[in-house]
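Shift notes (night). Ran Acyl-CoA thioesterase-like C-terminal domain-containing protein while the centrifuge was going.
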Amino acid sequence: MTDELSTDLPAFDLLDLEPVDGATTYRMPASTRLCTPFGFLYGGSGIAASAEASERATGRPLQWITTQFLGSPSPGDVIDLHVNVAVTGRASSQTQVSGTVDGALMFTSLSAHNVRPAGDETAFSTMPDVPAPLDCPDFAEPFHVDPPDSFFSTLERRVAAGTIRFDTPLGDGDVQPGLIAMWCRLVDSDIGSAATQAYVADLGPLAVCARLGRPLGGTSLDNTLRIVDPTPTDWVLLELDADGLHRSVGHSTVKIWSQDGRPLGIAQQSAILRTSHHQPPANA
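Came back to this:
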């Protein structure tokens, strides 16, 4: 479905996404590096795969994607992605993506693509003033990580602002105040494309857990990503905002900033918060 308005689109090699049948069907192995330590696909991996498959099918950069999670692929599964290019206009396209394992639906995505010319960039907010990445402490995972080869190993994360600790849980109704922000970079890739932004920004539940001071995990119900600027950068600042919690479902927003202060994207997420698959660190 590509045309003369197509642009060269970057590939996120970590996904190992392979075409199967023409330009609309792809396959991705759920390697351990794309999964959580708890035995299921990391949500950011699924969103990233949908984003890249949709870009390849349309030949156009992604502007917006929303993903609903219906199941949890396991390490070793093979995920088939089918892209239905629903609408193609002169400068925009819209698609529907389904991710299945052995015919069972795991996640679905809707996306919009845009090839209108750049040059009208304007920022309406300012990146928080935080120390440089290498001046910030490493982020320590709040729970036991086994096996170690998970999506955690593909990221370097450093706490830029706020308290992300869970060893002194707050009382009911209490929250930790102030800005929460984290520097993040990928071990083997710059961040900027829709797929890479989707991969690093699937951290909304962490904002809710940090506010509560409780080491809860999140099972995503949905995740929406809006791309502002896909220009690649090494480090990104993730500004984490917990929006609310009700009936064990936490809602959050993540603003993605380049190291030089450009707004790259905005992710919004709803996730069920639970402790069933988490264990505290051995030295806790």
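DSSP finds three helices and twelve strands in the chain. The chain has two domains: 13-114, 133-274.
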